[in-house]
Amino acid sequence: MTLAFPDVGERVAWAGAALVEELPAFEEKDAGGKTLDLIPLAKDTVFVWDKKTGNLASRPAKAIKGRWTLAAADFKEIARAVVRVESAGVPVPAAIVELDDGKEKRSSLLEGGETHFFGVKPGKITVRVSYRKEGSKAAPVTQTFNLALQRKEPEPVLTVALPAGAAAVRPMPGGTTLRETPPPSAPTLQAPPANPFGRALVILAAL
To answer: What is the pTM of this model?
Structure first.
């Protein structure tokens, strides 16, 4: 299968059964400019991430007859959106983040005050954060955002502000952190099951 583009640019492409939530390590390859070859299975979906716009295109492999010539209109979703959670201006180390883009609801755990979601539908985005405050479970905080397909930031950052007193970490010299509340205050969380990775992942970086 050949993927063809109208111009040169930095793009990541892979084929798999589902969209991943964590990209595995990938090898940089010279794809020769405007084309890229993949070998997906018939049951796979082909994903293409345009790093310049930050948008994502996808199509079932069985719907591609040998060659897919991509146009701007094929990139219909936001490849990756970052959710940042803060309390009194410092990152919150432990919380459950739920994102609803109208297409589906997904959840993730914070890491260093941030988490991210792939394949986000543009438009109204609702983010709900469950956390602990002063050692007890607090009422979840919900904020809404509007993400446009055409935007200045390829990878948008959605910042959710929690009330003062939420378990937070404060940066310290040397890259370490200091907890503002004792570790037992952090909620006990279970990570959601990971999505399967695609089998073929390459980055198209035409200079």
So the answer is: 0.75
